[in-house]
Design goal:
19 helices, single chain, disordered C terminus, globular, mainly alpha
Length: about 400
């Protein structure tokens, strides 16, 4: 088989092999997770657990000091008391105030219980919805073993929660457009994704979905204001340049990034050159997104959501490998469309690359100084845009 044929068709990558590969990977990921849990329980090492910042912010909210969630020393003090093994290494909280509406109830629970509940709920919801969309309920380990989900769950990040919301909204876009918009409003906790949603809905003319999104996003922001007070918002906005300064100045973060900015810095580019590379990539990604939406026409559906997720992951310079949990969305949608209509040229290998990306991106970056993640995301967006097709009857494939 020629290289062109290998890329275009990838006939060797059939359902039986996928089930076999993912079953083996599930065992590997399970073994790694058990080993990490043992090290933590034995006090040997403390893995990176970002959830502790969310839990500590919830504790501050419960104590009536919600605005201190964006005050590093106050947050670090709570973390040091609750999780002494972590010490004061995790003293940042960069999420918008509506996210505190989730963090505060979790703060009522002991830290380990809250971590398991938060990650487990997002993981189960994502696995169920993805398996349902693809028709793989008999082989759910294909999603249980998805490295992006495992890394996100172990770090206690938000990607699985967002993936479940996006998958659910994608299924409701045509059947329950108002509910789909209300679910999409939850993306207000991830601003760079939230920015793309109204633009997408305006371009495609889906007014009911847009109405639901606006109502939901505004309601969440007002609820956070009413519950926690207006002082939270200045704290959040003040934290944005702090996060960007950390990205610009801490070279240890660059191997974990999934942005072209981080990839350029890893290659030795200066700050200005890295920003230029990132902006150019965003322009290309925006063009691919626009082409994909134009090719789909008025037949909006889950395929749109896949495009928006891939573009959204490329938009922010402040993106890391745990955010790749959101690739569960284009993965499940790409598989579902391929099984229903046949796989578009290059789609099988694209899906395979997206599946393993979270597992290999950081090790490759550390070993070679080259970040594969942004390039794979951009190529995948182009492949998905080229494969975009109107859904039969407007149902949204």
């Amino acid at each position: 088989m020629s290289l062109a044929g290998l890329w275009r068709d990838a006939d060797w990558l059939n359902a039986a092999r996928v089930r076999g590969y993912t079953a083996v990977l599930a065992l590997v990921m399970l073994g790694g997770s058990v080993a990490g849990a043992y090290q933590l329980a034995a006090g040997v090492a403390a893995p990176r657990v970002d959830f502790v910042s969310f839990w500590a912010a919830g504790r501050l909210g419960l104590a009536g000091h919600a605005a201190d969630a964006w005050h590093g020393p106050a947050l670090a003090a709570v973390i040091a008391q609750a999780a002494p093994l972590l010490g004061e290494r995790y003293g940042e909280f960069f999420y918008p105030p509506p996210f505190l509406l989730i963090c505060v109830p979790l703060g009522l629970l002991p830290y380990p219980v809250a971590w398991v509940l938060f990650s487990g709920a997002g993981w189960l919801a994502t696995v169920f919805l993805a398996a349902r969309i693809t028709g793989w309920l008999r082989a759910p380990w294909a999603f249980v073993a998805f490295p992006g989900a495992v890394i996100c769950a172990l770090s206690g990040q938000t990607g699985l929660l967002l993936s479940a919301s996006l998958l659910l909204a994608g299924q409701w876009l045509n059947r329950r457009p108002l509910l789909a918009g209300l679910v999409l409003g939850a993306l207000v906790i991830k601003p760079h994704l939230a920015v793309l949603v109204p633009l997408w809905l305006l371009i495609t003319g889906r007014r009911v979905v847009l109405l639901g999104f606006v109502v939901s996003a505004v309601a969440l922001c007002l609820a956070a204001w009413a519950v926690f007070g207006g002082a939270c918002w200045p704290g959040f906005f003040a934290g944005v340049p702090v996060a960007m300064f950390a990205l610009r100045s801490q070279a240890g973060l660059w191997p974990a990034t999934i942005s072209f900015y981080g990839a350029a810095r890893l290659l030795g580019a200066g700050d200005e050159a890295a920003w230029a590379a990132h902006v150019c990539a965003v322009v290309v990604a925006g063009g691919a997104l626009a082409v994909g939406l134009w090719r789909r026409g008025e037949a909006m559906g889950p395929g749109d959501v896949a495009l928006v997720v891939l573009a959204g992951l490329l938009l922010s310079p402040y993106g890391f490998d745990y955010d790749l949990a959101m690739l569960a969305v284009p993965l499940s949608i790409g598989v579902a469309q391929g099984r229903a209509h046949g796989f578009a040229p290059g789609m099988k290998l694209t899906l395979a690359a997206l599946y393993v990306l979270a597992l290999v991106a950081r090790p490759v970056a550390l070993l070679t100084g080259v970040s594969l993640a942004p390039l794979v995301l951009l190529v995948s967006l182009v492949v998905f845009a080229a494969a975009a097709r109107p859904a039969p009857g407007g149902a949204g494939a």
